[in-house]
Amino acid sequence: MIKKIKIDQLKPGVFIHDFDSGWHTENLFINQTLVKNTRTIEIISSWGIKEVFIDTDKGLDIDEAKTGREVQLETDENLRKLAEADPSSSYYVPLKEEVALAEDIKKEATSVIQRAAQNIQEGKPLETEDAFLLIEKMQESVTRNKDALILLTRIRQKDEYTLMHSISVGSLVLSFCNYAKIPHDRTLNFAVGALFHDIGKTLIPLSILNKPGKLTDLEFEEMKRHAEYSAEVMKSAEKIPHEAFDMGLHHHERYDGSGYPHGLKGDEIGFGSQIAAICDVYDAITSNRCYRDGMDSILALRKLYEWSSYHFNKDLTYQFIRCVGVYPIGTCVRLESGLIGVVVGSTDNVLQPIVRVFYDNKKQDSVTLYDRDLFKIGDKVTSYEDAGKWDLKKLKIFEDLPAGISLFS
Ligand SMILES: [Fe+2]
Ligand SMILES: [Fe+2]
Predict the structure, then answer these.
(1) CATH number belonging to domain 95-293
(2) What confidence tens digit (pLDDT) does each residue in 63-83 have?
(3) Ligand 2 centre from 328 Cα, in Å?
């Protein structure tokens, strides 16, 4: 049985099934392992890990620990409460419509970041004029529809992870600032910081950056230096706001002090960097990497919720979850009416999205696909449905979106 325990409950003889360390985005590629001695526990603790999942079939049991299933149900209940506390949502343009416009913005963002990276490799300073113009357009796009640009950046070729990640984190930060009603000027500063938060990776050797396996300790130390490189690069720019510079330097700091480069704690970490940390981790765990497939959005939200107890500012994480929506596009859900479907769009109420229905649980029969606007009809989501039970790829639920947007890993 899979159970979740705190690090101080860990003892020799326990088998670790999952280190639950995805908030540590740059490495920590660790396999399942049997805890042999207390030294192992000290090492795991030094990585900033506070909780792990164990497999009691392969090692000792910890009686009082909750099962993985219990943890998930509790988290889902908490997510639902978060949404119920503020179900309003601002929604303007249907996803399909905005995707067509966002394609052009994605192209422009690609060339802005590529040009910046090239300048840096040639030893030239970072120019921010184009970036500010671009960000105004990105801001308009996420205001019309918060999902389109972010979904487009999920389509990633092997060598463009950092590029698409930068656009996605920029879009997520904009979306968050809209939701949290951050003033316009400050929002633009945060978005520039987000767009260039990993620009320092341009100075990391590709053999480390694209290495498909675990990095050696030395390689990991070099990889971690990208935050300082990002800050140095941003310093070279003429008009870089201090808050943007800070996001480059501190987006890997963690609220409990377990991050890098300075091990800052709590509000020692700048506000923009706290937001960047959440958006950075959300994008990193939902997107495909060279060594693993990305998580579904809902799994990622569950993880963020759990990790917010230690690694992130809790309030900001809750706001971020509300902003992404507890039923993000692509989430498989069960409705009060007994129907089962996949979320394909937003309405004015986050608890009542547009759902593409494919099964009627009352009749125990599949139905021809159709879109059900829960807000108009008065139906609502009652629980998450395990997407793995259904062959969603075969159902071709997102056929009307541009080729390549995959919402199911
Ligand atoms: Fe980073
Ligand atoms: Fe990043």
Answers:
(1) 1.10.3210.10
(2) 989 999 999 999 999 998 988
(3) 21
